[in-house]
Amino acid sequence: MNETFNISSSPHIRAKVTTGNIMFLVLIALMPTTLFGIYNFGVQALGIVFLTVASAVATEYLFERFMGKKITIADGSAAVTGLLLALNLPPTAPWWMCVLGAVFAILVVKQLFGGLGQNFMNPALAARCFLLISFTGRMTTFVYDGVSGATPLAQLKTGESVNTMDMLIGNIAGTIGETSVIAIMIGAMFLLFMGVIDLRIPGTYLITFIVMIVLFSGKGFDLNYLTAQLCGGGLMLGAWFMATDYVTAPITKNGQILYGVCLGVLTGLFRLLGRSAEGVSYAIIISNLLVPLIERVTRPRPFGKGGER
Amino acid sequence: MNKCTERLFNGLIKENPTFVLMLGMCPTLAVTTSAINGLGMGLTTTVVLVMSNMLISMLRKIIPDSARVPSFIVIVASFVTMVQFLLEGFIPSLYDSLGLYIPLIVVNCIILGRAESYASKNPVLPSIFDGLGMGLGFTVGLTAIGMVREIIGSGKIFGWKIMPASYEPITIFVLAPGAFFVLACLVAVQNKVKAAKAKGGQQEAASGCDGSCASCGNGSCGKAVFSVEKQEGK
C-alpha cells in the first residue's frame, strides 16, 4: 500500500475537458459547413480556408515566439478563429485579404489583449468587421455560379421573393460558410450532443429574433418570409458558432439568456432598419462589449446569504 | 539661453504632448486623417500656444490666483479667434478640413496645461520657448499619425500617391478606429525606445534619480511605476 499522501488544495477531482479538446470538437463541428462551402464554391474556397487558418496559426506562433510567451497553437484556438474567419469571407476574397484578416484577428484582437481567454470580442468577427469597413465592395460582392448577384437577404430587403428551399440547402450566394443551414445545423447538433454548447444563447437569440421580425417587419407572421430571414445571412453560423464562444459570452446562466435577447434585438434592428441587409456580426461584437455589464447585473447570490429583511 | 533649448527639447521629446503626456487627444484622433491636416492642426495650435504662453507669462503678476482659469481662457480664446479668421482668409482649404476643431483649440488641454503649469510661473522668454517646444512636439505627433494613416488608408502622403496602383487602401485607417490603432502603435514604439534607453542608464542621469523612490518628488517617474508592477507580478 502506498503510504505517501499528496497534500494539495481543492479542487481534487478535475474534468478531463481541456481547451484543446473543446477546440477540436468545434473544428469537427465546423467540418460539414466547410466541406459544403468548398463543394459549393469550388477550389478557391479551399484555398481561402487553408490560407486563413494557416496565417492565423502562424501569427499566433510568431507573436508568442517573439514575446517569449508559452506557445499555445497546439490548443487549436487559433485554428478555430482562422476557420471561422474563412467561413465569413466571400469566396472571391483575394489572398491578401485573408492574411490581413487573420493577422488582425489574432494579433490585435486576441494577443494584444492578453491571448486566449482575454479577448474582449470575438476575434474572427472583429476581423470580419475590420475587413467589411475597409473593403466594403469586395466583402459584399458575391458571385455564385459565375454570376454576381445579391444575396437572398439583400433581395428580401428590396422586396423580391426568394427560394427558401435553396437557402436551406445552401445553393445561394453568400460567404463560404453561411449558405447551408443544413450543414450548420449538423455541426450545431453535434456540439449540443457533446455538451460543448447549450441551447441558452442560440435559443434565446433565435426566439428573440423571430419575435422582432414578427412584430416589426410589417409582414406579420409570414412563414415564408420568416424562414428566409432565419436562413439568410450569417444568422445561423453566428448564433450556433460565434455567439456561443466561451471567452466572449457571459458565464452566468441568466446572463446568457439576457445576452441572447440582446443579440436578437440588435440583429432584428440592424436587419430591419439598417442600411445594409446584414447585421449579425455587428450585433455579436456589440453584445460582446456588453458582457461585463451583463455579468455584473446577473451575478448569482451566494448560497446561504440572507435576503434583505 | 540654455534653459530655452532645454524647454524645446522637453516639449519635442521628453514630454511630447501626444506620445508621452497623452494630452489633446480630441484633435489628435479626429483631424489626423491626412498628414496635411495633422500638420495644419499642429501648427495652428503652436501659434496659439506660443502667443498665449507669452501673454500669460507677461501678465502672471497681475492675474489674481483665484480668477486665473477664466483669465487664461479669455486670452486663449482671443488668440484662437484671431487665428481662425486668419486661416479662413488665407488658407480656406485647411479651414474647411479642420472645421469645428479650430474653435475647439480653446479647450485644448495642452494650452491650458502649459499656461497653468509653466507660463504662469516663469519669465517670458522660457515661456515662449516652452510653448514652441510643446507646440512643435504636438505638430510632430499629429503629422506622424496623419502620415501613417494617410499612407495606409489612402495610399498617399501629403496628397501625392506613393503606393503602387495595385495597392488597395485599408479604408478603416482614415476612419475613427484607425486613429486609435495608429496612436497606440506609435506610443508603443516610442515606449519601447524609451525603455531601452532607461535600461542603459541614460534616463537616471537625466532626471537626477538617486535610485531611492522615497526621496523623489517626481511622481511621473517611469521607474517607480515599473517597480510597482513588478511587485504585483509576484
UniProtKB/TrEMBL annotation, chain A:
PANTHER family, alphabetized: ELECTRON TRANSPORT COMPLEX PROTEIN RNFD, ION-TRANSLOCATING OXIDOREDUCTASE COMPLEX SUBUNIT D
GO CC term (a single one): plasma membrane
TM regions (residue ranges): 21-39, 93-113, 167-192, 199-217, 223-243, 255-273
Self-association and partners: The complex is composed of six subunits: RnfA, RnfB, RnfC, RnfD, RnfE and RnfG.
Localization: Cell membrane
Chief location of this protein within or outside the cell: membrane
The protein's enzyme class: translocase
Natural source organism: Faecalimonas umbilicata
GO BP term, example: electron transport chain
EC number in record: 7.-.-.-
UniProt similarity note: Belongs to the NqrB/RnfD family.
Modified residues (FMN phosphoryl threonine): 151
Gene: rnfD
One Pfam assignment: NQR2_RnfD_RnfE
Function: Part of a membrane-bound complex that couples electron transfer with translocation of ions across the membrane.
The name this protein goes by in its record: Ion-translocating oxidoreductase complex subunit D
TrEMBL record, chain B:
Subunit structure: The complex is composed of six subunits: RnfA, RnfB, RnfC, RnfD, RnfE and RnfG.
Top-level taxon of the source organism: Bacteria
UniProt family annotation: Belongs to the NqrDE/RnfAE family.
A biological process from GO: electron transport chain
Protein name: Ion-translocating oxidoreductase complex subunit E
Subcellular location field: Cell membrane; Endomembrane system
Record bears the keyword Hydrolase: no
